[in-house]
Amino acid sequence: MSAAQNTRITKAVRQLLVAMVACTAVAGGAAYAVSPDSAPVAPQTVAGVADDNGWPVAPPKPTPTN
Fold first, then answer.
1. Spatial distance between the Cα atoms of 34 and 43, rounded to a whole number of angstroms
2. 0.90 exceeded by the pTM?
3. What is the DSSP string of 20-50?
4. C-alpha to C-alpha distance for 34 and 26, rounded to whole angstroms
5. HSE-up (13 A, CA, CB side) for residue 26
């Protein structure tokens, strides 16, 4: 094996290891974000809209006061 070939192999192995570490970090972050132990997400509410099984319901029409 020549020195140039050893350099290419070493570079390829190093790039593979960096890619593996990066992918593991991203996958670990995603798993942490969706884990059941993470903080629960508060339901989003909109003023004047009631929630019925997660579907927004139009508020009742106001009655005229005149």
1. 16
2. no
3. HHHHHHHHHHHHHHTSTTSPPPPPP--TT-E
4. 13
5. 6
Tokens found for residue 18: 């960096």
Beta carbons of 57 and 64 less than 8 angstroms apart: no
Torsion of CA 48, 53, 54, 60, to 10 degrees: -20
For the chain, the residue count is 66
Only one residue has tokens 């509410």, namely 45
pLDDT tens, 8-42?
999 999 999 999 999 999 998 888 877 766 566 66
